Amino acid sequence: MRSDLLVCILLATATATATATPTATPTPTPTFLPADPHHAWSFPRDHFVRPGYRNEWWYFTGLVTTADGRTLGFQVTFFKVGLLAAPPALDSAWATAGAVMAHLAVTDVAAGRHRFSEVVWRDAPLLAGFGAAPGPRVAFAQAPPGTPGRWSLDLDPDGTWRVAARDDGAGIDLALALRPVKPIVLQGPNGYSRKAAADGFASEYYSQPRLDVAGTVALDGRPAAVRGEGWMDREVGSSQLAPSQVGWDWFALRLADGRDLMLYLLRRADGSADWRNGTLVARDGAVTLLGEGDWSVEPAGSWRSPESGDTYPSGWRIRVPSAGLDLAVTPLVAAAENRSRLVRGLRYWEGPVRALQAGRSAGEGYVELAGRGEGSRPPL
Predict the structure, then answer these.
(1) Residues 67-76: pLDDT tens digits?
(2) What is the CATH number of domain 3-16+42-370?
(3) Which of 61, 234, 311, 357 is least enclosed, having the fewest CB within 10 Å?
């Protein structure tokens, strides 16, 4: 179901409710909660949905290898999309304030092929929704029309994530267990991640940068056992991009020496950085917050999508002088654009990358590039 149709349905429902009770005493319109710089983190509670916030997501990326040596990149993301701050005042389990959107992508490196799938459903019984602590269900959504079953995200008592998603039309069937091997990383002071100099643009953000990944991936009906490493990002908040911002570049790299590097920059329309932040995680899990002057990213090439016409950077030089890092980062597959058919204008580049330093292998990870074309400013 299209997200713009969801908005129409919800607004119509709210209008009908107000019309049916014209003499009712008006009540204040609920508003979404802002990100809290003083949030008291508690796990596993905070792995689960946080009512009252406009947007949340659970973002899994990684690289796995099959028994015959093929390399596959994967992305599985569940989004909570708040359309109203509170459900309409209806005595119905179907009265909903939002939607669940989920994205699935697999990149076959040897074949040079990137596959993408998506679903968008109302947050309503049987269609999609979220669980509560202690779980195990964190989120679910019905599979795309024509594919049986559900996409699901579960959390085991030992902290292992389990994701499953299938789209017969795209030829993808994925089931993975992702076990954290390093401590949780709070991205920013107490996990408060500013997105602009002005107040009010921020999220509560944490990562699990090293996940041991095992499971199966089937492409075109041919299943393969896989092993590898992954990364999980989780953000909670209600603010949109600042008015001057059109998108972002995000880097998540697992370095060969055991360190992990996360960098993001939010861009203006002319391509310049409006806000930048980063984190370097030591092998033992110690966290160093990186300020604007601690690192740099320079594009080292470009790729133009033949489908959308958008042009993306395709290769970067990343330097963190204080950490001794001077990395050449390149995509494993250039054509890794995700283009939504359900949400108007939603498209972004998301793909696996490798990192070299002085010509030697230095790590791997994922890069996301959003808001790189006309009309592609993310609706978040």
Answers:
(1) 999 999 999 9
(2) 2.40.370.10
(3) 311
